[in-house]
Known about the structure:
Blueprint: H1 3-27, H2 32-53, H3 60-63, H4 65-84, H5 89-121, H6 128-148, H7 162-179, H8 181-202
Helix pairs in contact: 1-2, 1-4, 1-5, 2-4, 2-5, 2-6, 5-6, 5-7, 5-8, 6-7, 7-8
Amino acid sequence: MDSLTWVVFDIMGTIAFAVSGAMVAIDKRMDVFGVIVLALLTAVGGGMVRDVLAGITPPVALCNITDFMLAILTALFISWGYTRWPISHRNLQRFLLLYNICDTIGLASFTITGMLTGLGREYGNPYVLPVLLGVITAVGGGVLRDVMARRMPVVLYKDIYATASLVGALVSCLLYPYIGILAASWLCFALVILLRAGALRYDWHLFHPRPGKRLGK
């Protein structure tokens, strides 16, 4: 596993997901402690689940204070910045845009760290573990965030979300033996970003089961 590549995407994902977690907490009118808790859960929760499943104990986040401090400082900065924004429709739209940008960057970055962790373990099938760890790392923190915020996890209903992580991780795992781990990582990042951006821009959705029409008698 390329340690420098892993660290770069880990920092990007931690900051981006800390922002999205803090913004959800602010939207739910939590105090600053709640903002920090949701930022931490979103930023390190998926990685901790990943590490436990990969047999890495204690999880990396508990051995290195960097991720915790990045998430806490980000939560405090977002809390301070929000109090400086005058309430207006335009600023609320910017708030939503910032949330979507950070959530998408976090999704892409943590897909890569999970995939790289799986590739470094070299257990069994060369695709199953890296792909699943990529998806779990990418969506795990968001699921914990949404449960704490008492809302349905977005991964269960939101347009193209976990699917973007799955596609990015799978394509990158298939191609990395031929293009190298660095190029595969950036390819994964680009794929996830493009799929999420397309879903947000063009309202792409997966199939939603709906009741069929009743047949006339």
